[in-house]
Amino acid sequence: MKNLGTASVAALRQYVRAAESAGTDTSALFAQANLDPNILDSDDGRIDGEQFQHFIRLLCELTDNPILGLETGDFVQPGSYSVLGYITMSCATLGEAVARIAPFEKLVGDMGTTGLAIAQGSITLTWNCNYDDPVVRPQVIDNVFASWVNYARWLADDTEASPTSVRLQRELPGVELEKAYRNRWNCPVQFGADEDSITLKQDLLDTRLRQPDPMLRKTLEAHALTQLASLDTLDTDTDLTSQVKHSIQHQLTQGITRQDMVADDLGMTSRTLQRKLSQEGVSYQKLLDEVRQKMAEDYLLNSDLSIPDIALRLGYSETTSFHRKFKAVTGQTPGEFRQTKTGN
Known about the structure:
Elements: E1 6-8, H1 9-21, H2 27-32, E2 46-48, H3 49-63, H4 68-72, H5 82-89, H6 94-98, H7 101-104, E3 112-119, E4 122-129, H8 136-156, E5 165-168, H9 178-185, E6 189-191, E7 197-201, H10 214-236, H11 239-252, H12 259-265, H13 270-279, H14 284-302, H15 307-313, H16 319-330, H17 334-342
Parallel strand pairs: 5-6
Antiparallel strand pairs: 1-2, 3-4, 4-7, 5-7
C-alpha cells in the first residue's frame, strides 16, 4: 500500500467548513476516521494521510455529491495552505506566488506534487495526486484546482482572472454538472484527459498582488524551511534521532547548537544522550551536520538569504567554516550550489 504521509489540519478544516456550511454534521465522521474533532483547533497540527483519505471518503458517501471537491474549493482561505498561504500573500506578483507552490506544498500535506512547465506564452501546472481511493482521488484533484483558481483570484483582487484551460483525468460526473466547472473556471474543461493540469497565460503571472511584503515573506520562508526539515526527519528517522534533529533545528532558528541543551530538551543528561545515540550507531555531531546540511540546501534553493546570513543562522562562527563544510559534502561552495540549482 502506498504511504500517504500526512496532511495539515488546515487542509482538513477546509472540507469541514464546506460540509458545515451545507448543513452536514461531521461529528460521526471524525469518530469513524478515528480523528479527534479538537484537532481542528490546532494551527500546526497534522493528521495521518490514510485518516484524511478515509475522512474524505466518508464525507463523499454521506453527501452523495459528485462534485464535492469542486464545491469545497469555494471555501479556500489563506490558512487552508498553512504557512504557504501566508507566504504567497506576501509575494509581489502572482508568478512569485506560483513559484512557491512546489517547494513548500508538503507543508499543506502529502496529497500530491506539483509540476510546472512554460511554453509558447503559457504556463501549465500539473498536479500528481498521491491518493488512490477511486472515490476520493477525483474529488481531491477537483478541490486542489478549484482552490487554486479561487485563491489566485483573491490574491490578485481580480474575480475575472481565469485559466485558459483545465484538463482532468476524471470522467465527466454528468452532463448536467459540466456547467458547474465552466461557471467556476470560465474556460474549457477536458475530462478523461491523460493528466490533471491547469494552464494559464504567462503574462497573468505579472499580476501585482494586493499586499506584498518582501521582509515578511523572507521571515515566513525561513520558518517554513524549518518546518519542512522537521517533516523530513519525522518521515525517515528513528524516534530518538528524529527528536534530536527536531531539537537541533529549533536551536538553529536561534543560531545556537549545544548538545547539553538538546539533552535537557529531551529530559536526559548529555552523557545519557550520547550513550543512546551510540547504541543507534550515530553521534550528535553527525546529526548536527545532517540537519545543518539539509537546512543549508533549503535556504539556498528556496530563499533569498545571503550566504553569510545562512551561515549565521546555522550556527557557524565564520562563513569560511560554512563554505568548507558545505563543499566537503556537495563538492561545491554554497554559491556554486545555488547557481547550479537555481540559476541565480
